[in-house]
Amino acid sequence: MFKNIEDSQVSITELMLPSHSNFSGKIHGGHILNLMDQIAFACASKHSGHYCVTASVNRVDFLNPIEVGELVTLKASVNFTGNTSMVVGLRVESENIQSGEKKHCNSSYFTMVAKDANGNNAKVPGIILNTVDSVRRFARSIARQEQSKHRTSKYNSTQFKIDDYLEIVKQHNVMIDL
């Protein structure tokens, strides 16, 4: 079974309130991460027809601050489908209500896994790739998966060799006191 990507796309807009701000008066990153997880869940669940859980988040860079009083819009779309998992692409934008200025605040990729009523992984429908962008996003997700398979274990505490890294570490803002 295959579904159109557009059928599970989700968008939400929320007004940023003072209760969402951090000590510097900007919207707290944790609040945005919470909203991102919610919309990724909604998109993945809509696509799969199952309850979904977050398996991983691929890099979140906060590009622009979000101010109290701005509208934040989050957009989610399934970029990739495996057997039981989906990669949901997210985009976060803020809008100043008075000036109309819009800012791209961050983009990220959430890997979501579908679960059946017993908590077991559930098969998900594939997606229909019908645009150049959809093929590009799917291919990029495959590449990201391949990159994650090649993560190194040389920094694992049982395999780490300090002598290989002391000179590199000394080039940075650090004092070594072993």
UniProtKB/TrEMBL annotation:
Any one GO BP annotation for this protein: acyl-CoA metabolic process
Ranges where the HotDog ACOT-type domain occurs: 6-118
Entry superkingdom: Bacteria
Alphabetical UniProt keywords: Hydrolase
Pfam families, A to Z: 4HBT
Molecular function, one GO term: long-chain fatty acyl-CoA hydrolase activity
CDD domains assigned to the protein according to its UniProt record, in alphabetical order: BFIT_BACH (cd03442)
Keyword Hydrolase (UniProt): yes
One term under GO cellular component: cytosol
Family: Belongs to the acyl coenzyme A hydrolase family.
UniProt xrefs under PANTHER family: ACYL COENZYME A THIOESTER HYDROLASE, PROTEIN VDLD
Protein name: Acyl-CoA thioesterase
Organism annotation: Neotamlana laminarinivorans
